[in-house]
Amino acid sequence: MKHRIVVLGAGYAGANAAGRLAKRLHPADTEITLVNADPDFVERVRLHQLAAGQDLLPRALTDVFAGTGVHVRLARVTAVDAERKIVDVVEADGPGEIPYDTLVYALGSTAGNCGVPGVAEHAHNIAGKQPALRLRASLAGLAEGGTVLVVGGGLTGIEAVTEIAEARPDLEVSLAARGGLGDWLGERAQGHLRKAFDRLGITLHEHTDIASVEPTGAVTADGRAIPAQVTVWTAGFAVHPIAAATTLQVSATGQIVVDDTMRSVSHADVYAVGDAALAPGASGTPLRMSCASGVPTAYQAADAIAARLTGRQLPQNKIGYNGQCISLGRHDAVMQWVTPDDQPKPSAVTGKMAARLKELICKAAAWSISHPTSMFPTRRRHAIPAEEALAIAA
After folding, report:
1. How many domains does the chain have?
2. CATH code: domain of residue 120
3. For a tag on the chain, would you pick the N or C end, based on fewer CB atoms within 10 A?
């Protein structure tokens, strides 16, 4: 009997995990199913570009995984029964169940409202393709002089506000940040950010807490109104609530708690990768939600699963960071070099060179999705009897 591996979610983490598993394990021994609600791979790191009016290259998952041995199942996950090893889904023809022997949970994250009133009702987000398209339509409907407010001074907020300001110089665009602009970056990178904001005419509201979002803008904690016809919320992300509704051990954020191999600390047949996991890096510090964390955790989980099924040595956790690359429109960016535990180094690349580096990184990430079984180790058959491998995996 084949070992059934089910991967939930086909974002950067889930798609890379499925592709690496397909290359690591022989189809005669394993059956790999990738479950995703959207038929296309969503290039999430470019959703600010989609919202600003640019079109992204479509990548149908069935085409991406054709001939790899990965079966793509288009369905929305509604629940996971970690005791019965069953995933409940809703497909085009109705509800269904998918049994598994090993589960890779990669449902990622969505926009979080941080408990701020009015965010869900009156603010846009770019945490998914459909929200980005709705924002795109709203921006297209603004006349010259229209007002846009982006809330959140993190990577997503900075990329969104600069992309919008560059694409629509006729709009009045502003950013509200709880801290200082890029205050987690080095001095050189912070200085370049400020120059880019000045060049693009972006109004900056630093050290500003947003207390509520209204149809006409936002209200700060000190009662000041920031007018906006369109408000974009990037101040936080939240994981899907499915894991928290299971018997899996999760953190206060709802992320599945995993060990160095991305294996659930409470259920040995479940792995979690990407934003869905509270995962340690090589230094033991929890990894941040990002594509830079998602792909390495996917590789780590896939390699660990393959090692356990074939009786080989488990991979060491060497996950760390090299840099944070922030696009500032299409022709400008900041590449902040960081330590493996994500602390800024004094050096940074800025301007057009950084923009080229950012584009190269985005293209490389997309290439890894489009070629899911390329440049990975050779497939391996079970080195031990299938029954024993199943017991080890469990």
Report:
1. 2
2. 3.50.50.60
3. N
Identify residue 128 by its one-letter amino acid code: G
CB 88 within 8 A of CB 78: yes
133 and 78, same structural domain?
no
Question: According to the model, what pLDDT value does residue 180 have?
Answer: 97
**Does one domain contain both 100 and 145?**
no
Both 298 and 222 in a single domain?
A: no
Q: Report pLDDT for 369.
A: 85
Instruction: Report the length, in residues, of the chain.
Output: 394
Mean pLDDT by 10 residues, the chain (394 residues): 96 95 93 97 95 94 94 98 98 96 95 91 95 98 98 96 98 97 96 98 97 97 97 92 96 96 98 96 90 93 96 94 95 96 94 96 88 64 50 50
DSSP state of 84: T
Residue 354: name the closest of 320, 379, 330 by CA: 330
Contact 82, 250 (CB under 8 A): no
Of 204, 233, 262, the domain-final residue: 233
Given a contact cutoff of 8 angstroms between Cβ atoms, the answer to whether 218 and 231 are in contact is yes
Residue 131 in tokens: 């929200």
How far is residue 120's CA from residue 72's CA, in Å, rounded to a whole number? 32
Regarding whether 262 and 385 lie in a shared domain, the answer is yes
- Cβ-proximal residues to 267 (8 Å cutoff; 6+ apart), any chain: 82, 247, 248
Q: Which of 233, 262, 279 is the last residue of a domain?
A: 233
Write down the pLDDT at residue 384: 45
Query: Domain range holding 145?
Result: 115-233
